[in-house]
Design the sequence.
């Protein structure tokens, strides 16, 4: 397997001074630079063409963009569980999460046909352009899809290598590894349910919730929290509280992403805002809109929002967006985001975290969900 070389004989140095979740998100940048520098050296030793065409694009995607939320949540989970053990191991786990996120983004863009990621051409688009610029033979799209899949595979291999190295150096490595293994399977299951729903024309709210939970909510918040907690040797009570908190915050994150994918500003999100509607992807927002249109007798909205042929026109996208507003779907989803965020904080309180850490967690939930839940016990 092409990946990072294990260096378990090298001690992981402690982080100097206490860090908040946001501090950890910044600190992981330096960790990622070191990890990717090592990965690039190894890739060039294996094959310079592969390193230039594939590995360098993976490294560029990882290093340019992203809020590092998963790292910040892993740090919060570690601190909520006592913050004992090696702090650098938590940062390296956060770096592994950022690498697996790169894998998910690259593969997701291929499956969705998304042209832009983090304000730049998606990896498969870059590969197609390279094919054309170098005057290669065969269809550019076929080459680009294959190359992008390999790029995503490389990001996952690097993530697995890093997580394995971290687990081998931790007294709680087996617990860390089990959380990681569960997360990877959940991600694949969620992605499959997503493409299956599109192929079958599914439109139910329950199906949308399953997809949102498996594909995004678990690996965005719940698993990062428990990965961090595992490194602190968290007990079952703390882990259960963090799982509940993370699932609520993760769903709030995904529902916000659904809203931004329909009503957001592409200059701020770094990706197109019409893709979900144009492809009629089963998001929770679309499922709620369809249900409300049918229950209210709004036949025009029901027809617009029902499963159908993808690649709809600009005018149809505009009308779909209007229908989601008119049926009240956007308002309903906004209310659910706020409730999920608030519920997440109540679950997090069960860990016994300090007031300062609860405020810090609330700030991260706000960053993820776009709403400002108030930590328990604070006045309005």
Sequence:
């Amino acid at each position: 397997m092409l990946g990072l070389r294990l260096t378990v004989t090298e001690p992981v140095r402690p982080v100097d001074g206490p860090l908040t979740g946001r501090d950890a998100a910044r600190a992981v940048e330096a960790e990622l630079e070191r990890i990717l520098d090592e990965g690039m050296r190894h890739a060039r030793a294996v094959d310079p063409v592969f390193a230039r065409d594939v590995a360098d694009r993976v490294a560029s995607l990882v290093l340019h963009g992203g809020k590092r939320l998963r790292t910040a949540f892993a740090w919060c989970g570690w601190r909520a569980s006592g913050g004992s053990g090696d702090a650098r191991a938590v940062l390296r786990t956060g770096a592994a999460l950022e690498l697996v996120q790169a894998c998910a983004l690259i593969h997701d863009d291929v499956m969705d046909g998304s042209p832009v990621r983090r304000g730049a051409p998606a990896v498969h688009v870059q590969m197609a352009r390279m094919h054309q610029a170098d005057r290669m033979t065969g269809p550019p799209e076929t080459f680009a899809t294959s190359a992008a899949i390999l790029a995503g595979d490389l990001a996952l291999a690097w993530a697995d290598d890093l997580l394995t190295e971290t687990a081998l150096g931790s007294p709680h490595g087996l617990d860390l590894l089990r959380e990681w293994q569960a997360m990877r399977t959940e991600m694949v299951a969620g992605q499959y349910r997503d493409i299956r729903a599109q192929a079958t024309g599914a439109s139910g709210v329950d199906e949308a919730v399953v997809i949102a939970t498996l594909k995004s909510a678990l690996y965005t918040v719940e698993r990062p929290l428990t990965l961090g907690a595992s490194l602190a040797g968290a007990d079952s009570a703390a882990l259960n509280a963090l799982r509940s908190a993370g699932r609520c915050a993760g769903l709030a994150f995904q529902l916000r992403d659904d809203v931004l994918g329909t009503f957001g500003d592409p200059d701020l999100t770094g990706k197109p805002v019409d893709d979900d509607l144009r492809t009629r992807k089963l998001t929770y927002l679309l499922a709620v809109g369809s249900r409300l249109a049918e229950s209210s007798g709004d036949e025009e909205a029901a027809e617009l929002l029902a499963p159908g042929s993808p690649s709809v026109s600009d005018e149809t996208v505009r009308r779909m967006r209007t229908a989601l507003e008119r049926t009240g779907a956007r308002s309903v989803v906004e209310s659910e985001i706020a409730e999920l965020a608030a519920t997440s904080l109540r679950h997090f309180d069960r860990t016994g975290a300090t007031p300062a850490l609860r405020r810090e967690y609330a700030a991260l939930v706000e960053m993820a969900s776009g709403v400002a839940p108030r930590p328990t016990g604070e006045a309005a």
